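Q: Hi! First time doing this. I have a protein sequence and I read that you can turn it into a structure. Is that right? Here it is:
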Amino acid sequence: MKKTVLLLGSLFSSGLFGAALYSEYNTWYYNNGVLYDVAQTSGSQPVLISISQAGFETANLVVSYFSEEACPATGTSSKLAVNGSDVATSYLCVTTDKGRIEHFMVTDAALVNQLVDRLKSDFTVVLQKDIKVWAANFKTPKYGMAPRMSFSAEAPQPGQITTRALSPMKPPAPSTD
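A: Yes, that's right. Below is the predicted 3D structure, encoded as structure tokens:
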């Protein structure tokens, strides 16, 4: 689960919000026992969702998204609203120059597996009262680790989705010191 949080955190902190994000929203992906999806808030901010080890006693859920407010005071109890009920989570908030990135980690396997069953039954799950997680292709996810994303300084037109893959990052040049 730490690897997932680090991956999601690195996506957010790598400038994801410095430019407009176009993505395949509400399309599930599967790789190495983890289901991935990108949903969006009512304010059109991306929400990264991962469900690891669905169907097992070790199932867990990670929800990560950006908001413009500052992180709450340390020790503040932060709950994730799931279908109108507050759920206990492990919570991590990272401050950025434009707001915060929140990570909610649900380790209650029974609850996570209930959510999985709901999505398998083609029902929508609502997080934080305004994030709709669609079942879409949940029963037949695409293979891969994450949706294809592309970035642009220009805002998309309403209804526009761009699915161009990012080019791979080049490793840094070796140091001559």
